[in-house]
Write a structure and sequence with these properties.
seven-stranded mixed sheet, about 220 residues, Glutaredoxin, alpha+beta, 2 domains, 5 helices
């Protein structure tokens, strides 16, 4: 009788272990895998999108560009090939949201400083003011790592076009040609030059969400 009970106990335990493993495998198969949307112009606030593409529903990517960074180096899309990057728009003399955005972008820099897959890109919306020298001073003052984070200036029309037709990130301004009302948006760009997320660059909770989404995107790419 004791032998029977021992065998019965072993059989029951074995069945329970098998059942637990089977349920775990079944749950992992059914559990939806984390994913991120691919944003198209038609899905974004129309105020942030150029009217020529506001109804576009697929195949949107970041256009090629040719700009100058804080070290006087030419920065093109090639610099970001096969990289995930976070982009925003700012200006060095801004005293409202820009200091907060820069602080939060710096937090991203510090947390991902050793991750060679991730880069940062900040475009000046006042390139006529933000010369290479001005950007360099700003970079030094804010401890920006030149290998991780480019601050770029250049032709105002090109920056305006990138902001409105590529990154879908700023409002048009009635003050003059190619004037922008820049926003607090951070954009997450994947290795295929697609927009995978928008974040309020002034909010700590949004920076946390952005960092989490970067990890998801790394697994998807």
């Amino acid at each position: 009788m004791k032998l029977f009970r021992k065998r019965d106990l072993i059989t029951t335990a074995g069945f329970l272990i098998f059942a637990i493993i089977a349920v775990s495998i079944f749950y992992s198969i059914l559990k939806p895998k984390p994913s991120l949307p691919i944003y198209q112009p038609a899905e974004v606030n129309a105020k942030l999108v150029d009217t020529s593409i506001v109804h576009k529903i697929k195949y949107h990517t970041i256009s090629d560009f040719n700009l100058i960074n804080q070290n006087g180096d030419t920065i093109t899309q090639d610099f970001y090939n096969d990289k995930i990057y976070v982009a925003d728009f700012f200006f060095t003399t801004c005293q409202s949201i820009c200091p907060i955005m820069t602080k939060n972008m710096k937090e991203i820099q510090e947390k991902l400083i050793n991750d060679k897959e991730i880069l940062l890109l900040s475009h000046s919306v006042t390139p006529e003011i933000d010369s290479v020298g001005q950007l360099k001073k700003y970079a030094i003052a804010n401890e920006i790592n030149d290998h991780k984070w480019n601050l770029v200036t250049g032709d105002k029309k090109q920056i305006y076009t990138l902001a409105r037709k590529s990154y879908l990130a700023v409002e048009d301004s009635p003050l003059g040609d190619y004037d922008m009302i820049h926003t607090e948006n951070f954009m997450l760009i994947d290795k295929k030059k697609q927009i995978r997320g928008f974040y309020d660059g002034t909010l700590d909770a949004e920076i946390t969400r952005l960092l989490e989404d970067i990890e998801i995107l790394k697994k998807l790419d």
